[in-house]
Amino acid sequence: MTHSPATQQYTEKQAGDLQPGDFVFPPGDGPAEEISTIEVQNDDYGVAALLLVTMVDGGTVRIAVGSSVPVGEGSDVGAYDASTSASSTPDSSTSAESDAEAPAGPADVVPPRPEVPPAHTGPSAEELALIPEPGGTPEAVVRAAAADHKGKNGVQVLSERLAKGINTKSGSCLRDLSDLAFDLCIVLRDPDHALAVADLLNVLPFDGNLDRWASIERALALSSFICREAGQSDRAAVYEKLLRAPESQEEDPFKARINARVRQRSLNEPNLYDKEIFRAIDNGNHEAEREWRFLRLEALMFLRAHGGSKTIGEDELARRIGNELESVRA
């Protein structure tokens, strides 16, 4: 006899609350199966859309993140089998004895909620005051940074383009600003001007546009790194709070849990471009290797601004960042 939701007691659970060890009823009339792993899949806009649930026996089920699904307890299935076998035994005395000794059914147990990182709030007004006002217009800040590096083609090209007018609503403009800040700090070893340029981005709020936020996020991670290296831990903490502030803006509890799980996985399993770097080394393509190492350096700085992850601690991040800095500056 099959034990589908129609023939066995079950409860419904939000897809975002599922976790390994739960027993879920796949579509059809089969029994509840134990979940082995859960993978969150994003849509093309980077938003969590599907859960790919893999069972202990290797089967998979795709569940929309907003769905409710029928779940049972693995012990309930075994108890059902045992009671069915006992009731079909012809020895009535044995049956009666079993009934007499059978303990009361287990009370409903609410499974623990999945671990979710705490929400982060933005910095206070006092903390924001640690970020100085720009020395003039944004265009003047850019020109002052470039003035100390005449003959450096990359910086000059970026600064000339930005000096014509900085539009903070333009994604390409924000990208140019973050690129300029990185070049000043990483390539030209000018953290002061790099921080001044980055601060033009750092004070911009998250408006829901992920493309624009990516440039601001880069600038915040770089600024945190610069201040940590300079011993300005209080100011670094402000940038780190700004970096994490969007994480607490989701008001829907379910979406917040899904987003937290996706975010934690990206921190625990970061893309550090190992394959691309090794391929460039094998091909003797030093320029490509350097570009990939730049991207790895950015990823490591982002992780450090988040305080590390479950797989890479802060001390190890500091060591790796130092190695990548030597490589890209060589």
Chart the SSEs and their pairings.
Elements: E1 11-14, E2 23-24, E3 33-42, E4 48-55, E5 60-64, E6 68-72, H1 74-87, H2 92-101, H3 125-128, H4 138-147, H5 153-163, H6 171-187, H7 191-202, H8 210-229, H9 233-244, H10 253-268, H11 274-282, H12 286-305, H13 314-329
Antiparallel strand pairs: 1-6, 2-3, 2-6, 3-4, 4-5
Helix pairs in contact: 4-5, 4-7, 5-6, 6-7, 6-8, 7-8, 8-9, 8-12, 11-12, 12-13
The run of helices and strands is: EEEEEEHHHHHHHHHHHHH
Which consecutive residue ranges, at least 5 long each, have pLDDT under 50? 1-7, 75-118
Residue share in helices?
40-55%
Count of DSSP helices?
Answer: 13
- Helix and strand content put the structural class at alpha+beta
Strand order of the largest sheet: 1-6-2-3-4-5
End-to-end gap: 70 Å
Number of strands: 6
Q: Report the principal-axis shape.
A: elongated
Provide the gyration radius in Å: 27 Å
Give a short account of the largest sheet: 6 strands, antiparallel
The percent range for strand residues is 5-15%
What would you say this structure looks like, in words?
It is a single chain. With 330 residues, the chain is α+β, with helices and mostly antiparallel strands. The chain is built from 13 helices and 6 strands. It has a 6-stranded antiparallel sheet. β2 and β3 form a beta hairpin. The longest helix has 20 residues, at 210-229.
